[in-house]
Design a protein that fits this description.
Distance between the termini: 31 Å
Number of domains: 1
Largest sheet: 4 strands, antiparallel
Mean pLDDT: 89
């Protein structure tokens, strides 16, 4: 993940993968990808629509994500990433990633339950 502020590099976190091909621009907007995520998680209506005082819609971030554990340079995709959890009214999932071109759900991470 690369963070910037006002067009200036701030920090980076992750690994370098040489040879990743150029990724095409997204075909889905953030709201379209969020709807794909809601459909996948079978959440209707969205928690922030059902109870706006208790839940807030997550903000989508475009990231390059790894599609398989032993990734090769061609195993990466541009994806919309949504942090979920209690703030979004989705306590069973911590995050979901949606392929920004196809709408495929690349990851749906279940929340860690701490007792």
């Amino acid at each position: 993940m690369v963070l910037s502020e006002k067009g200036m590099f701030r920090s980076a976190l992750g690994h370098v993968m040489p040879g990743i091909p150029a990724l095409a621009p997204p075909q889905l907007t953030s709201p379209m990808a969020l709807q794909k995520a809601l459909d996948h998680l079978v959440l209707a209506p969205a928690p922030w629509d059902a109870n706006p005082a208790a839940a807030h819609a997550p903000v989508g971030r475009l990231l390059i994500v790894q599609k398989s554990p032993q990734a090769q340079p061609t195993d990466f995709a541009l994806a919309w990433y949504f942090a979920l959890g209690h703030e979004a009214g989705v306590p069973l999932y911590s995050a979901v990633s949606v392929d920004a071109r196809s709408g495929e759900i690349l990851r749906a991470d279940k929340a860690q339950i701490v007792e």
